[in-house]
Specification:
Protein name: DDE Tnp4 domain-containing protein
Shape: elongated
Strand content: 5-15%
Radius of gyration: 22 Å
Helix content: 40-55%
GO molecular function: hydrolase activity; metal ion binding; nuclease activity
Cofactor: a divalent metal cation
Distance between the termini: 33 Å
Subcellular location: Nucleus
Number of strands: 10
Family: Belongs to the HARBI1 family.
Order of helices and strands: HHHHHEEEHEEEEHHHEEEH
């Protein structure tokens, strides 16, 4: 983060986090409170380590981080915006068009490991025998979040994580205002606008996921999976960058679910803030940090060299489902279009 952006955030947060001096002692300045919080998000240092660095008690550190993250959620909430009308979605599709036409966003979800919540029993217990909350997100082609939902999920099946999410509810009710289906070049049928996802999500009219299993080189299904992977790698990069920069996500977050959710959402908002910044973007994501596609091959970015073996950010597992006939037919039509337009990149 550049010095100027630090000052911009400080100016926005100061009215919410600045405390008054008393006759007994001076208040901790807002600048120190913000620096402490950013240090915690960037390093994941324990409160004991921060105690030696900032000369504050563990209790004060915990309180400051919680209050500052709550303030970040308030002042940066507009950094993550879902397109509100068809034209906005079509602009998102334009960015994806050369990779996967009619794709408007890449979707993914992560379990975020936390400490065992007080008196929760198995409420937050997941398939990897850890306690976690779930982050579901939509990401556009510019590597920015357009939707993020950090939920303290109850103990539901992994296949039900998406079905119990705010995103699923909006999609089911038609509240997303996605564009009406329209024909693709080489296809007479009207094709829906879709999110691309992996096998953790259900195949639906507006959600495309890979064909399961292995397929011969050059086959229709393998070609479709390759195109979808090239589009979905965007969201994989976003989560990778976040865990590389905000290292609090690299190990289990030793906080209760509500405070851990604030930590994760603060990272999401700061990610978009830094991506939108002219002075911080190249510091946050330097050249070569992201994956890139050359001659239909994915060239790994340097962020992949910094990933821990046992991160607190863990993928949702693939879930076997019987797909409905209509979404399956739509996927087959997309695959046929890709085969007939091998020059698309």
């Amino acid at each position: 983060m550049s010095t100027s952006d630090f000052e911009i955030i400080l100016q926005k947060l100061s009215p919410l986090i600045q405390k008054n001096d008393t006759s007994f002692r001076k208040a901790i300045p807002a600048k120190v409170r913000l620096a402490l919080t950013l240090r915690y998000l960037a390093t994941g240092d324990s409160f004991r380590s921060l105690h030696y660095l900032f000369k504050m008690s563990h209790q004060i550190i915990s309180k400051i981080i919680h209050e500052t993250c709550t303030a970040i959620l308030m002042v940066l909430k507009d950094e993550v915006k879902m397109p509100s009308n068809e034209q906005d979605w079509l602009e998102k599709e334009t960015d994806f068009h050369n990779i996967f036409p009619h794709c408007v966003a890449a979707m993914d979800g992560k379990h975020i490991v936390i400490q065992s919540p007080y008196h929760s029993g198995t409420e937050f217990y997941n398939y990897k025998h850890t306690y976690s909350i779930v982050l579901l997100a939509l990401v556009d082609r510019t590597y920015k979040f357009i939707f993020a939902d950090v939920g303290c999920q109850e103990r539901i099946s992994d296949g039900g994580v998406f079905r119990n999410s705010l995103l699923f509810q909006k999609l089911s009710r038609g509240d997303l205002n996605l564009p009406a289906p329209s024909p693709l070049s080489g296809c007479d049928n009207a094709m829906p606008y879709v999110f691309v996802a992996d096998n953790a999500f259900p195949l639906q009219t507006n959600i495309m996921k890979p064909y399961p299993g292995e397929h011969p080189e050059g086959s229709l299904k393998r070609n479709f999976n390759r195109k979808l992977s090239q589009a979905r790698i965007i969201v994989e990069n976003v989560f990778g960058v976040m865990s590389s920069i905000f290292r609090v996500l690299r190990k289990p977050i030793p906080l209760q679910p509500d405070r851990a959710s604030n930590i994760v959402m603060s990272c999401v908002l700061l990610h978009n803030f830094l991506r939108n910044s002219k002075t911080s973007n190249n510091l946050y994501i330097p050249p070569g940090f992201l994956d890139r596609i050359e001659n239909d091959e994915v060239i790994p970015g340097t962020w992949r060299n910094e990933q821990p073996v046992d991160s607190a950010l863990r993928s949702l597992p693939a879930v076997a489902r019987r797909n409905a006939s209509t979404p399956s037919n739509i996927r087959d039509k997309f695959a046929q279009v890709f085969v007939s337009h091998n020059t698309l990149n």
